[in-house]
Amino acid sequence: MTLCTPIALEKHSRRLHNHNSQYSNSTPSPPPPSQFSGGGCFPSKNRPPPVVESDPDSAQNPVDNDDDDSVPIETVNPIAEIRKLRIFIVFYSMYGHVESLARYIKKGVEEIDGVEGVLFRVPETLSPDALSAMKVPVKGDDIPEISAEELVEADGLLFGFPTRFGSMSAQMKAFFDSTGGLWKEQKLAGVPAGFFVSTGTQGGGQETTAWTAITQLAHHGMIYVPIGYTFGAGMFKMESVRGGSPYGAGVFSGDGSREPSERELELAQHQGKYMAMMVKRFQPDTRNG
């Protein structure tokens, strides 16, 4: 309800006085103010909507906007697609043990929002005849081979390989040797990187295979990210054989017939998740930029 102010009452009184002066003594009195549509300070709910008269000339003579110099506004989608961070999981696997770790690492990476894991093989250096003589299984085509130049597209890198006398296998070493062009221009400097390995025996290089590979990262200026003991109690259990170390996930292959244990796969998945968290932490915070 609209309240009456003194000014509104005064205006209404003058309007009523002028209206009454138009009537003679024989003319019946006008209706009280409350019966006027919208009279006084009490708006009527039945007041008809205001009628706006249109200019007939405007319909017949529309305005010519040919000379309008206004700049058209381009509609922009306010929801921009955000690119996910990508961790390249680059590995060599002869009998499938390292590949099993790689697939679980990918699972762990993708537990972190905004990060995806991408699997790649490094090129084989052995001939088909040699591989056949060693009874090496044929590799599937679901994982592509990577070239050295593609490494620059990654936000983080995890390299996996079996051991050869306590250091990386020849296939992975050949791949690192092909990165000389990237090293020359330091295109991988500042990229977080880590390792995961496979060995045939318990003393076969679970630690040395990883730490001897750190020289590759150092020359490129990459940032080495070990897992430490972030796996928690799983790093201390001694009741069963388990590969892996503070340097990264690992698996014991034995003569090639042993499959990765559940604990080894859990550690690999943990490394993927941990690496994804570290890669996100290394990204610049653009929220305030």
Automatic annotation (TrEMBL):
**What EC number is given for this enzyme?**
1.6.5.2
Enumerate the Pfam families for this protein. FMN_red
Where in this chain does the record put each Flavodoxin-like domain?
87-275
Please state what class of enzyme this protein is: oxidoreductase
Q: May I ask which residue range the UniProt record assigns to the signal sequence? A: none
SUPFAM superfamilies per record:
Flavoproteins (SSF52218)
Q: Please give the InterPro entries that the UniProt record associates with this protein.
A: Flavodoxin/NO_synth (IPR008254), Flavoprotein-like_sf (IPR029039), Flavoprotein_WrbA-like (IPR010089), FMN_Rdtase-like_dom (IPR005025)
Under PANTHER family, the record lists:
FLAVODOXIN-RELATED PROTEIN WRBA-RELATED, NAD(P)H DEHYDROGENASE (QUINONE)
> What is the designated name of this protein?
NAD(P)H dehydrogenase (quinone)
Organism name = Lactuca virosa
